[in-house]
Amino acid sequence: MTVGTHKLTLPAEMLRRGFWLYAWRVVGPAGEELLYVGRTGDNSSPNASPAYIRMGQHLGSLDTQNALRKHLAKRDIFPEQCRHFELVCHGPIYPEIEKPANFSREDRLLRKELMEKHIPLRNIVGAMEKQLANDLAAADYTVLNTVPWPHDVDPELWKPIRAAFAEHFPKLRG
Question: How far is residue 78 from each of residues 2, 29, 38, 142, measured CA to CA in Å?
């Protein structure tokens, strides 16, 4: 192990809550490029966290949150052995559903009402997550995860999102 000084710059925009779409680019120990595609916008609650929160969770130790770590482990890769991590995130595509000041998780009626507003946005961004993973794999990137989302993306909504990611993943331009 070597000791070093490192710098991480975080754009303040990444602190905004909402529905984000993101792709991790990982350069593994042997120099291989691996991608992981994800989104924010919970399935079980009306929450849509900022991209930076998911960033830390993916490499953390909580089994319910560290999907990137798990996918690397399936390839016998430990994150600490990797050469580089880059998170490309786009959003918030939609803001998080606003909760009243008196919001309580125990208020089932209010939670149900918030979920009814949250679910359509979550489904749109979930479809974009699936499309991004599929498009990256079709462009010959190594994508660690598959996204089994039941909904398909609206082509008109997808076009500018794909263009935004193509700036960082040039093989998507074709």
Answer: 16, 9, 20, 17
